[in-house]
Amino acid sequence: MRLNVKKALIFVSCLVILWVLISYASVIEVPRSAPQRDPAVEIENKIIKLQKQVDAQMAESKSLLAKVNKLKKLSGGENVGEDNSLKDAEVMQHLSQPILPVLVIACDRVTVQRCLDNLVKFRPSKETFPIIVSQDCGHNATYEVITSYTASDPTISVVRQPDLSEIVLPRVKVKFRGYYKIARHYKFALNHVFETLGHEAVIIVEDDLDISPDFFEYFLGTYPLLLKDPSLWCISAWNDNGKLEVIDMSRPDLLHRTDFFPGLGWVLRKEMWQKLAPKWPTAFFDDWLRNPVNIDGKACIRPEISRTYSFGKVGVSKGLFFDLHLRNIQLNMEYVEFTKLNLTYLLKDHYDDTLASTVYNLPEMSASEVVASSDLSSDPVRVMYSNAKTYQRAAKKLGLMDDFRSGVPRTAYRGIVTCFIRGRRVYLAPSFEWNKYDPTWG
Ligand SMILES: *[C@@H]1O[C@H](CO)[C@@H](O)[C@H](O)[C@H]1NC(C)=O
Ligand SMILES: *[C@@H]1O[C@H](CO)[C@@H](O)[C@H](O)[C@H]1NC(C)=O
């Protein structure tokens, strides 16, 4: 590539020298070639001719310069060696289809191996899905596990969070130190992906996640929604209410919108990161992302059946939460070709109208009636709630998560929580006209 740049530069130089010689020769010629004609007219003609030559030469030089600049860009600038330069084919691919790197957030768990093994196993394309591991905590054994992957595969890289200093906290917050470190690590890792490496979007996973066989296909198929719909800010692989008893196992293709950030395998775009970074919190970043104020009231896409599964019990927040909840979430095993599906129904205009008109035309049932119902494969119903208390009572009865963050019920979209119980689609919906979430709930 550098050779091409040099060749082009030499070519341009030769043309310029040639042009100077030709111009000089034609000016010298003037008095000899037209001795009998009017010298004023003759000189004017010469000047016009010369002007035309100059214009043509300028145009050619400009186009050559453009070509040189393009070649320079492709080779990654002057000071980038042969090894780092992108090949034309790769550049074309970059333009015609997105690059979605996977960012693996790692710390001191050598089980990151299990996560990396699955990413490598299900990754359909190394070029489309380069893997970037960001390691915090300075744990050498974990770092060695990671480098065993990076050593043999140039599409897997590792970066270490450089600031391992203890975060100074008031005594009452010391027990939350882990959450402060995680927020600091995410900020570093996302800046690395977007600002240092210049990626447009990223799939974020933590080191304790298993993935479904169609994990990559899911993100590739839904990514265009994120580009098309400005009311979306993330795509998540996770259903917080993804237990066997409350999902429709016959619909692995089904996706939903949610106002509640699910995390656990998600896509973020650079554009959104640049809005979040300046106000990024020092701790509890996931709950911070669940406050509509911080994400401009935007929504995420989430699946009916989760595409990730958390296998880690050891961790900052896990433990009890894992036993009670994460352990029972179903991981999808049926491969869905999301890139071939029509996902238009998830765009805000389609989705909101359809949801409201569907839900409020359904027959009503109480949560108790739904769980006691014995006729399988029945019609969808609506279960109403009027305040935080009646919401939680109904959710608990249905076997759903009953908590709120900033007033948003887990998995809710515009106040509606949907699930699938005993062969029936159920919508837990407000009995009042919903306008926004009430942050005093929960
Ligand atoms: C990790 O390795 C580095 C050098 O490779 C060493 O300086 C450091 O002491 C090691 N840390 C631990 C905790 O073993
Ligand atoms: C895709 O789905 C939308 C909304 O559900 C529908 O209006 C549209 O006709 C569909 N497009 C195709 C090509 O089927």
Automatic annotation (TrEMBL):
UniProt pathway: Protein modification; protein glycosylation
Pfam families named among the record's database cross-references: GNT-I
Entry note: cofactor: The cofactor is mostly bound to the substrate.
EC number(s) on file: 2.4.1.101
Keyword terms, alphabetized: Cytoplasm, Disulfide bond, Glycosyltransferase, Golgi apparatus, Manganese, Membrane, Metal-binding, Signal-anchor, Transferase, Transmembrane, Transmembrane helix
Gene3D superfamilies: N-Acetylglucosaminyltransferase I, Domain 2 (3.10.180.20), Spore Coat Polysaccharide Biosynthesis Protein SpsA, Chain A (3.90.550.10)
Record's catalysed reaction(s): N(4)-(alpha-D-Man-(1->3)-[alpha-D-Man-(1->3)-[alpha-D-Man-(1->6)]-alpha-D-Man-(1->6)]-beta-D-Man-(1->4)-beta-D-GlcNAc-(1->4)-beta-D-GlcNAc)-L-asparaginyl-[protein] (N-glucan mannose isomer 5A1,2) + UDP-N-acetyl-alpha-D-glucosamine = N(4)-{beta-D-GlcNAc-(1->2)-alpha-D-Man-(1->3)-[alpha-D-Man-(1->3)-[alpha-D-Man-(1->6)]-alpha-D-Man-(1->6)]-beta-D-Man-(1->4)-beta-D-GlcNAc-(1->4)-beta-D-GlcNAc}-L-asparaginyl-[protein] + UDP + H(+)
Cofactor(s), by name: Mn(2+)
Membrane topology: Single-pass type II membrane protein
Cellular location(s): Cytoplasm, Perinuclear region; Golgi apparatus membrane
InterPro entries: Glyco_trans_13 (IPR004139), Glycosyltransferase_13 (IPR052261), Nucleotide-diphossugar_trans (IPR029044)
Main location: cytoplasm
GO biological process: protein N-linked glycosylation
GO cellular component: Golgi membrane; perinuclear region of cytoplasm
Enzyme class, UniProt record, top EC level: transferase
GO MF terms, alphabetically ordered: alpha-1,3-mannosylglycoprotein 2-beta-N-acetylglucosaminyltransferase activity; manganese ion binding
Protein role: Initiates complex N-linked carbohydrate formation. Essential for the conversion of high-mannose to hybrid and complex N-glycans.
Family of the protein in this entry: Belongs to the glycosyltransferase 13 family.
Protein name (database record): Alpha-1,3-mannosyl-glycoprotein 2-beta-N-acetylglucosaminyltransferase
Organism: Spodoptera litura (Asian cotton leafworm)
Upper taxonomic lineage: Eukaryota, Metazoa, Ecdysozoa, Arthropoda, Hexapoda
